[in-house]
Structures are given as structure tokens and as C-alpha cells.
């Protein structure tokens, strides 16, 4: 599994935790879960950007 697949799986797990958290009244838990979801989304975007950059550099390298 590649990095984006791993992050996607982690995001799916965070979504499931968010559903479960609806039955929990702990505000700190909910805030931490929201922070985790945001960080994972940012990570997924960064991983996609890096993957595109790698492809670009590989193409550039092939031309050289």
C-alpha cells in the first residue's frame, strides 16, 4: 500500500471514530479527533503533492 492509501485508510478510521464519538460526551476527545482528522487531511494533500513532484523529477531526470 502506498502512502496515499495508508493516509486514506487512516482518514476512514478517523471518520469511524467520529461516528462512535457521537455517543461520547467528552469534549476533549472530540476536539482531539477533529484535530487528527485535519492533520490527516493535510498529510494526504502533502503526500499527493510530493508524489507529483517525484514524477516530475523522474521525467526531468529521464530527459537528462
Strand content: under 5%
Unreliable segments of 5+ consecutive residues: none
How much helix is in the residues? over 70%
What is the number of helical segments per DSSP (H or I, 4+ residues)?
Answer: 2
- Terminus-to-terminus distance: 30 Å
**Mean pLDDT rating:** 85
Gross geometry: rod-shaped
Q: Which structural class best describes the helix and strand composition?
A: mainly alpha
Q: How would a crystallographer describe the biggest sheet? A: none
Following the backbone from N to C, one meets helices and strands in this order, namely HH
Please give the number of β-strands.
0
Q: What radius of gyration results from the CA coordinates?
A: 17 Å
Brief summary of the model shown:
By secondary structure, the chain is mainly alpha-helical.
Task: Looking at this protein, list some descriptive labels.
single chain, 64 residues, mainly alpha, rod-shaped
Descriptive overview:
By secondary structure, the protein is mainly α. Helix 1 packs antiparallel against helix 2. It starts with a helix and ends with a helix. 2% of the residues are buried. The model has no long low-confidence stretch (mean pLDDT 85).
Topology of this protein?
Blueprint lengths: L2 H19 L5 H37 L1
Helix pairs in contact: 1-2
Amino acid at each position: 500500500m502506498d502512502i496515499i492509501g495508508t493516509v486514506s485508510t487512516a482518514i476512514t478510521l478517523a471518520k469511524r471514530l467520529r461516528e462512535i464519538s457521537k455517543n461520547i460526551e467528552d469534549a476533549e476527545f472530540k476536539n482531539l479527533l477533529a484535530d487528527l482528522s485535519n492533520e490527516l487531511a493535510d498529510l494526504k494533500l502533502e503526500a499527493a503533492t510530493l508524489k507529483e513532484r517525484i514524477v516530475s523529477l523522474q521525467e526531468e531526470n529521464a530527459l537528462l
